[in-house]
Specification:
single chain, 122 residues, mainly beta, 7-stranded mixed beta sheet, 4-stranded antiparallel beta sheet, 0% helix
Length: 122
């Protein structure tokens, strides 16, 4: 059984910060792609940050809307992925999900966390 457990969501005012965590069990991150997705009210789910390793090099990628404000990182010893969110805006309000996949496509074989709510007020 693979389980992704998220934590760190909450309610903050615009300009504030939050750090989301996603701890994995029964799953190896050794050659996986990890990412954070979000879905706001009335909106479709979108990817916001991704991290993957290949040939000893770790790469990250961010959606333009969060670039410069969000930072994705991982602690392989703890099997945990983090999302540091700074300078939060009301439009960042969404349910945030972590995911792990064997390919960057995050297709049917993707493992998903339960989601954690982030609410940013003006």
């Amino acid at each position: 059984q693979v389980q992704l457990v998220e934590s760190g969501g909450g309610s903050v005012q615009a300009g504030g910060s939050l750090r989301l965590s996603c701890a994995a069990s029964g799953y190896s991150y050794a050659r996986d792609f990890k990412g954070w997705f979000r879905q706001g009210p009335g909106k479709e789910r979108e990817g916001v940050a991704f991290i993957g390793s290949s040939g000893g090099i770790t790469d990250t990628h961010y959606a333009d809307s969060v670039k410069g404000r969000y930072t994705i990182s991982q602690d392989n010893a703890k099997n945990t992925v983090y999302l540091q969110m700074n300078s939060l805006k009301p439009e960042d309000t969404a349910m945030y999900y972590c995911a792990a996949a064997t390919t960057m496509g995050f297709g049917p074989g993707t493992y998903w966390g339960q989601g954690t709510q982030v609410t940013v007020s003006s």
